[in-house]
Hints:
Blueprint lengths: L11 E3 L4 E2 L6 H16 L3 E2 L7 E17 L5 E16 L5 E5 L10 E7 L7 H19 L5
Parallel strand pairs: 1-3, 1-4, 2-4
Antiparallel strand pairs: 4-5, 5-6, 5-7
Amino acid sequence: MVGNGFNPDIKTVSVPIFENDTFRRGLEYQLTEAVQKRIQTGSPYRLARGNDADTRLTGRIVQTRKDVLGENANDDPRQLQFSIMVRVTWENLRTGEIIAQNEIPVAPEAVPLIAQAGFAPELGQSQATAIQTVVNQLAKQVVNMMEVTW
Length: 150
């Protein structure tokens, strides 16, 4: 039988506002909204509030970076890159079981959820569009994590 890769026993998921350990305020709301929208459009799960849900997906933004990749002759940034790293836990509220978890790599086998996007101010690209690109990439990674492993 060919399916969509999601657990048919799970119907609903609660996604509270992500926590944010960085100084960039507002990212937690932007990322939470992107994850919720992605769950609604890219999975069979419905969003539910609190303990009314079968499962809960929690997240924490643990690091953001803005790196200069190239400068012009006047040392002005020409090409930059914005990155966000998150820690995500998906738990079954009925059994207390951790269904999936991605964390900062403290062990070699751990895989972080990280996304990055470049932008060039000289070409009219902004940090805001780079952040939105990164947030959308992370939301996609989170929902992909919710698929059943083979």
